[in-house]
Amino acid sequence: MKIIRNIIIFMFVAGFLTAIGIAPVTAQDIGEVQNLISDPDPSDTPVSRIIMTWEPPLESSDISGYYTLFNEESEHTFTLENTHDITVITDTEVSSDDYAASEPDASVPAHFHVAAADTYGNIGPTSDTGPFYIDAVPPSDAKAAASETVSEPVVTLTLEAEGAAEVFISNTEYEGGDGQWKPLAASEEWLLAAGGGEKTVYVRFRDGAGNTADAPPVTILYVAGDTDCNGIIGLKDAVVSMQVLTGINSPDICNSDVDGDGKTGMLEAVFVLKKISE
Question: Which range, of 2-11, 38-47, 70-79, averages the lowest pLDDT?
Fold first, then answer.
């Protein structure tokens, strides 16, 4: 019914304009959009999002908007018959977000189509570009774990995320601060922030298309100064620290660093003595 109504309106407007001596604009009078650009460029590498931009057709004073569409067809032509459920947009930029939200098969290439429409309901030539391989599904079941209590600043994190290829670990925030992206492994050694107390480690996973998923923050109690590795702070820890200073090394001591220099020594001994005197 909407198509019939649009045709009737167009015929009425065309007849009126003709009667007063003004020829109606025809579809042939609308040019093709200019400088159609995608970010990123068409490729067989999966991406999570595509941004399309273009410029109006030349001599475009009567353009009212644009029909746009992402689908699996390499070529498409917008017509009055197939645009009744497509909203005309006035912007000259659109993303693949809505298309990607429908979780298309990332192995099937997508293409983009755009055509200008004028104030009389005419539609210009359709411009096509592609292919794009759109994968907007993030990794799933993101998990990271470590011992709840440690006596050394270096901990072993166990890592897991379905569909992930890389991991980012930080003591301060997801994807920031002291971390960097690296290939995902089942476990990683990680240096906690200096000083004793409760520490939080942030782990983010990323797939080949750039989608990310965050594991819940990992909370670890770092017992700084626990040089004898028994999980508590006591006088023996101060003694062990002093022994390290004098060159008496025990193979079983923990490098329970309190100042971030990676060593056990005087500062650790003083730290322990202060702790046990409180």
Answer: 2-11
234-246 confidence digits (pLDDT tens): 666 667 666 666 6
Compute the distance between CA of residue 25 and CA of residue 117 in angstroms, rounded to an integer.
11
- Which of residues 97, 132, 167 is at a domain's end? 132
**Using CA atoms, how far apart are residues 155 and 176, in angstroms rounded to an integer?**
20
pLDDT at 256: 64
Are residues 128 and 147 both part of a single domain? no
Look up the domain containing 41 and give its range.
2-132
Q: What is the pTM of this model?
A: 0.70
Distance CA 97, CA 185 (A): 30
Q: Do 160 and 198 sit in the same domain of this protein?
A: yes
Q: Is the pLDDT reported for residue 63 higher than 70?
A: yes
Q: Report cis status (omega within 30 of 0) of the bond before 138.
A: no
Q: Which of 33, 71, 72 is nearest to 55 (CA)?
A: 33
pLDDT at 158: 98
7 and 28 co-located in one domain: yes
Asked whether 61 and 118 are in contact (CB, 8 A), the reply is no
In a domain, 171, yes or no: yes
- Domain identity same for 82 and 174: no
Query: What gap in Å lies between CA 185 and CA 161, rounded to an integer?
Result: 10
Of 132, 149, 175, the residue that ends a domain is 132
What DSSP line would sit under 38-59, residue for residue?
EES-S-SS-BS--EEEEEPPSS
